[in-house]
Write a structure and sequence with these properties.
Elements: E1 2-5, E2 11-14, H1 19-47, H2 53-78, H3 84-89, E3 91-95, H4 103-119, H5 123-131, H6 138-143, E4 145-149, H7 168-171, H8 181-193, H9 199-217, H10 227-247
Antiparallel strand pairs: 1-2, 3-4
Helix pairs in contact: 1-2, 2-4, 8-9, 8-10, 9-10
């Protein structure tokens, strides 16, 4: 495990990628790039057969630079650090502060990668990665980046604290439909890591997240409730609603509810007792049935 310090002085635990996984990702990227380069070169040679040798050579060099140098730079820039090989190995390139990379980071990595990987067959990159404590090659050092693992074991997730019981009824009537998913994710990540944050930084982050949630629910944060318990209660209420919607929204089969006051289907309802008539031989003071009706209905005397 390693730590990245964000711009707000928050320490995030990450898993830097080591040499075997990085080498496999680079190998997959090179296989794809070389396959595309060969296909484009064959098509280009067939299309420019009428040109002279110098023009064909210049086009071949341009295609080489465009695909094997500019291609990885464009892919990492557009995918925010995830090439095809890194996606297959569960890796991502991030900045030193944990943020997504931009064009300048991908450009420095790509240009130095030509020397480290292509011209020296990966020897320089392997040596630099083995020497670095976080497995960085020279392109990562000069670009200020780090390759991290995105696929981590589920046990590494932090503990989500339960909300205070006395606060549950105060958030049960909130309209949570307007809160976006990325804000819910930020709230969950804060709650699972708030024990690792500095006290002042954690309080400020909780206040900002609580204000964002309250702005989308239309109800202000209660003045007597700290922001962290408020976020825990709101997140727990959202999870409870999702669980009720997924598992508890229907009634049993046949359309009949189960409970002490549930109606009985007409086909199984007990027949009402016969009222005495003038010519009836049944005594009017006969003892009532020993088992009362299931509906709880008591016939009038």
């Amino acid at each position: 495990m390693s730590e990245l310090v964000t711009g707000e002085a928050v320490a995030l635990e990450v898993r830097p990628a080591r040499l075997p996984s990085r080498a496999l990702a680079v190998l997959l990227d090179l296989v794809v790039a070389v396959a595309v380069y060969v296909a484009v070169t064959v098509a280009l040679v067939a299309a420019t057969s009428s040109l002279d040798t110098a023009a064909q050579t210049a086009l071949s060099i341009a295609v080489f630079v465009l695909l094997l140098v500019g291609g990885p730079i464009a892919v990492e820039t557009l995918s925010h650090g995830r090439s095809l090989g890194k996606m297959a190995c569960g890796l991502r390139v991030v900045r030193d502060d944990g943020g997504p990379i931009r064009f300048r980071h991908a450009l420095v990595r790509g240009l130095l990668g030509v020397v480290e990987i292509l011209l020296t067959f990966g020897v320089v990159a392997c040596i630099a990665s083995l020497v670095s404590a976080r497995g960085r090659r020279l392109g990562d050092v000069f670009a200020g980046t780090l390759v991290v693992r995105e696929r981590v074991p589920a046990a590494s997730a932090g503990f989500l604290p339960p909300p205070p019981p006395w606060l549950a009824h105060r958030v049960s009537e909130l309209d949570l439909s307007a809160v976006p998913d990325d804000l819910w994710l930020a709230v969950r990540q804060y709650l699972t890591r708030m024990g690792q944050l500095d006290r002042g930084v954690g309080w400020g982050m909780a206040e900002r997240l609580a204000a964002d949630v309250a702005a989308r629910t239309g109800a202000p944060v209660p003045t007597d409730v700290p922001p962290a318990p408020y976020l825990a209660a709101v997140l727990h209420e959202r999870q409870a609603r999702e669980a009720r919607r997924a598992f508890g929204g229907g009634s049993p089969a046949g359309g009949w509810s189960v409970g002490p006051t549930s109606p009985v289907p007409p086909s199984s309802a007990p027949a009402p007792p016969e009222s005495p008539t003038a010519g009836s031989t049944r005594p009017t003071d006969a003892a009532p049935p020993s088992v009362p009706p299931a509906t709880g209905f008591v016939p009038p005397a």
